Every structure is written in C-alpha cells, then in structure tokens.
Amino acid sequence: MGRKLLLENIEKPDINTIDGYLKYGGYRSLDKVLKGMSPDEVTEEVKTSGLRGRGGAGFSTGLKWTFIDKSTDKPRYLLCNADESEPGTFKDRLLMEKNPHLLIEGMILSSYALGCNTAYIYIRGEYMFILRILERAIQEAYAKGFLGKNIQSSGFNLDLYVHPGAGAYICGEETALIESLEGKRGNPRIKPPFPAVSGLWDCPTIVNNVESIAAVVPIIMMGGAEYAKIGIGRSTGTKLISASGNINNPGVYEIEMGVPVEEFIYSDEYCGGIKGGLDIKACVPGGSSVPILPKSLLFKESNGSPRLMTYESLSEGGFQTGSMLGSGGFIVYDEQQCIVRNTWNFARFYHHESCGQCSPCREGTGWMERVLHNIEYGHGKEEDIDLLWDIQRRIEGNTICPLGDAAAWPVAAAIRHFRHEFEYHVKYPHRVKDADHVYQPEMKYQTI
Amino acid sequence: MLKVTIDDISIAVPAGTTILQAARMIGENVPPAMCYYSKLEGSGGKCRTCLVKVTKGSEKDPRPMPKLVASCRTTVMDGMEVRNTTSPEVMDARKGITEFLLINHPLDCPVCDQAGECKLQDLSYEHGLAKSRYAFKRREFERKDIGDKIQLHMNRCILCYRCTQVADQLTPERVHGVLNRGEVSEISTYIENAVDNDFSGNMIDVCPVGALTDKTFRFKSRVWFTKPVHAHRDCPTCSGKVTLWYQGPEVLRVTGRKNQWNEVEDFICNTCRFDKKEKSDWIEDGPADIDRHSVIAQNHLTYELPVIQKHLETNTQPEQ
Question: Which residues in chain A have Cβ-Cβ distances shorter than 8 Å to B16?
C-alpha cells in the first residue's frame, strides 16, 4: 500500500468543513510557515522536493516560482488552474469536492512564498457545484482568520477568489486563462513574455495546477527532502491518477511515483484488471492529448525493463515507443475497442475546442475530424491515412499554444501504432458499417 | 545595435526589432505576413505564414530554437542566425499553412474585388498546391453589411484579427470583435451593429483578403484596370493623404497610401474614403509607385523593357 499524502483523509465525512479539516491536522503547515519560515525558505523547500507541475507539462514547480519577477513593485498574482477539462482527467475534481481546505491551505502557502496578496482559483464552468463548495470553504477560512488581513497575526494578507470559466477547454492554457480572467475572449497569448514577467493585468503571475498547489501542504509538513525520497529519480512524490476505461475499478488513485504500469492496471489495489477478463489492447496514460501506447510497448521499455508510472519512464524513447505522464488521465482500452473510433472522438473534441486564433489548429483540427469520420464510417480511402499523417505533421509545433500539439499527437500515435486498423476500415467499409466494427486479423475473412 | 543573419545575409538592427522587420530592412527573402501589421499594436503571430527557423539563438546562447518561430513576434538577439527560404523545413511548414488557409476559402477570385492585390492570392501562387486535398464542404456564412459602406464577406476571411485591432485602436467605442470559436468563429459587429465611426473604413485597407470590401467600389472595375495616383486634401479629421484609383477620368475608389509591404502610411477618415470621389476634391501629387511585380504594373511601363523583349527586337531586324 503506497503512501497517501493528498487523499489521506478524503473518505472522512466531515473533511469538507473547516472543523473537520482542523481535526485531521489541517492548517498545521500554514502554522509552521507563519511561525518560522521566510518566503524564500518555502520556495526552497518546494524546490528541494522536486515537485513537478501536475497539470501535464511536468515543469518543476519550485523553479517556476523563482522565475516570478520581483524587480517591479507591481502586485504579484497566484492563479490556481482548476479548469480541468482534459478528457480522461478528473483528479482535481475529487480533491476540490471532498477536501477544499487542502487547496485553500496550499494557496495560502504558495501565495506566502511568492509574495502575492491576491490569488484566484479559476474553475471550469461545468464545476459550478464545486464553486459553491469552495466559496463556502473560503468563507469558513476567512471566519477563522486563515484568509484576509493579517493572517494568524503574522502580518501577511491574502484575498482568495474563485472565478468560474464558461466551459472552454482552451482556458486551461495558462495565458488563455489569464485573458479569460481579465474578462476577455479566452485566446492564448503569444509568448514571450511569459506570465511570470507579465501575466494577469500585465503583472507578474504564476499559474499552477490544483494538485501542484495541494501538494505544497504535505511538502511543508514533512519537509522537501523527505518528500523527494518518495518516487524514483526526478519523478518525486505522489501523483493522482484518474483511471478510466475498461477496467474493474475506475477511479482516482494516489500512487507513489514509480509503480509499474502492469501493477497499476492489474493489481486489485488500483485498477483491478481488465473488465470481463479480456485482454488489454492499448492505453492512454496521461489524458487525451498524449500518444496512445499499444500493449506491446505499454509494459516494457525498449531496453526490456518494466515501464513505470514516472515522467521519465513513460516518455522513454520519445514518441516512437513512449508517451507522457501528462495530467494522469489513465484510459485503458480492452481488445474490443476500436482505435479509429477513439481517435475520431478525440479529434472531434479538439475540433470543438480549438479557439480559432491561429490557422493550423483552426483549420487542421476540423479537417482531421472530417477525414477520421469518413474512415470510421466506411467512406475512407487508402490515401486518407497518409493525408491524416500530413495534416497532423503540419499542425504539430506550428501553433501558438500546445492545443495544436495536443490535437496532433493522438492522431499521429494512432496511425503510428495502429495503422492496420485504419487500413482495415478503408478496406472493408461494409464490415465497418455493420456489427464487425472492430479490427479483426485478416485470417477470419479468408474463410468466409 | 544587434547583428542578425537571415539566410546568410547579415544586418545590424536596433534592439527590439523583430526578425520580420530585420528581413524587411534587408529587403530580400522577406517572410510573408498575413496578420502582422506594423501600425497595429499586438497584431501578428496568428496566421503562422511567417514562421522561420532560428538555427542559432544568440551569441550568448547559441542553441537553436526547438520549434519554428513566428518571425513577426520574435525579437532579434545579438548574433542570431535565421533560416527562411533556405530551410526546407520552413518551406514545408509554409506550404502546410497555405493549404490550411485555403481549405475553407471560397476561391472566388474571378468575382472578388480584392483580386490582384490579395495577399492570399500571392501566398498561394508561391506556396500553394495546384489541387486541393480538402474533400469537404467549405464553411459558409451570410454576407453582412458593416455600416452602409462596408461589406463583410466572412467566407473569404482568414481571421487575421487586423480589423478588430483597427476597431480596438482607432475607434473609441468598439462594437467589433470575434464571435464563436474554432473553425466557425466569425468577425462580427456584435449583433449586427454598424460600426459608426469616422475611421471604420480603414478595416478595408488592412484586410489582407477580400473579406472586407468597399461597397462604393464593389464590382465597378478590376484592380488592374485602374490607375493609382497620390493625392491630398485639407481634411479636418485625418492627414488627407490618399491614393486615388482612376479608371479613365473617373475616381473609382480612394484608399490610404500603401507602402511596399501593403501597409498604409496614414489611416484616413471615412469622408475622404467614401464621399470625396470627384477629381476636383483633390490636389494630385503624381502617380503612385508601383511594384514591378504588381498586376497593375502592365498599365504603367515606367521601367526599362525586359531584356528578352530587347533581344527579340534586335533579332527580328532584317538580315543584311
């Protein structure tokens, strides 16, 4: 049984109230910081802990904090990115819904480290019920003196606000989030300048994922060095994984970094194996944006050692043989699932969510979706597969924000690893339209 | 001054110059720019046609940049080395972008007022494919009137955002922006409000394609049949420096004076643009400079005859 840092008390019924949270040891990290740590010491602890951004990119959180421009006298802002919209990812929801005070405590600690006096939680519009939970929790924290002026007589002031988005996936991109928070259309900005220099209202701003900010609380409590002992190599600490798909126990799991992928899927402690005793076909290990991995590459790295749930191991070998840990949206497909249909579904999502600002993504995502739709419904042609490859290749890396990459990678990986399924769809359109939708090895048809 | 090398040609530029501006200073191999407009703040970075490869970041940090960068929004560092037309990767990306821009474009150039001075036409001539690989229905919008003098033909739009920036920066009460998102996003004056402002006509000049056209010029003539003449008048609202486009003795339209990068020198007011269409309203300054590659150049043989023609002339002389 792995260590639980974030989900330790998640099942306690009264953890969502401040009294419950205090009962289970809440706000002790804050106490520790306000009584004897300077902001730089807090940043240093986070840096020592090796915590990497949990939103998907995996950039060192402590290092990001040191980038904030302290040379100006402009106010600084901390934004919490709770616009969790990646298909397959639902970890932040659990954290905020059940244990809102953990996030609030993390926000106070992080703001203290960064010298922010105003912080925002930007939450996606679909999480309106969580917005109410958070607002109530913030009210409680104000009443107990954890927020507001002169927190716990330390002289540190912090105002915390929750702001709902209007349901756009693109507003999870940090600069689009800032635009949206400013009341503008949620179009990503062109970088540089980066938010740490010029972000919200042109002031230095740090944007962190919910899980990253929540992880600051145990890091302060146990010390950065102790936290860094959990995990393997540069992947330290625990990570929330939202497991879904054809598995026996879908849900959010907190794992210590370094659990083997095979163990994660088949152990009863986690996913509990594939539903109905079927074989596994593929897995998307980090949310819809990351490349899909076939069974042959999922459990073993190219050198034969077992693939582990870490940033490095999952991305081993680049996109030829690897994928990414991403945001931890772990989607498992059994042998009866159609990869073409899945790819089309993802492409449809990115087509719907492209902001339309830069041309490759605006035009390319729609094009890919239409071609995939044709292939999926038996109207595809042989050359469509190469066309798809060409489209994704020209979107990737040529856009303003990573949404273009996120739209291109799943298509590229599906063609790279499952080209035979695309060819099957093109070759047997009549079968695709009927019940035999899923790819079957060629042999079956030679006997008919 | 910072030294930058673009396609093996070096130039020294002041700090803060972008790669595109540096390329324009050199004057050769300039990346095409569909959305960048030097006179509009915050423009650029959107169309991605100006992508270039930075093979050396700077003297201090010589690492190449991992991705292609938008030259219009990337500032020059000292010692930077850039590849534009000499990089196959850049040319391939540009080809891709051109294809993306064209898949939803109606290609109605024969009836488009912009034909002949359209940047998308030039781009597709240089980087486009002969045949479209797009096998689906193109997106369609209704034609809309923005005020009584401007028509918006959204089908042709490439969403460069220049016109919304004109609305933002030249007109104080903005009612012009982008609705919806992704492929179906459209330029709109929110709920069909007319942009009622003295400078709204400039959105026609900044439009790189034929999405925003002058209704007073609509279907009157083709660009290559008209003759541009610089003129000015004493205007109380703007500089009054314009280009008149003549066909015979008639002034068919009035635009701002455009430089070689197709950018206007001064934004002009709607009175000058739409209402002053008599020769007597203007004091002429002489014919406008015409780029030799322009379609209207054939009406204005001010340059030397091409060598091949001279060659023909000498060769056709009777033998002695």
Answer: none
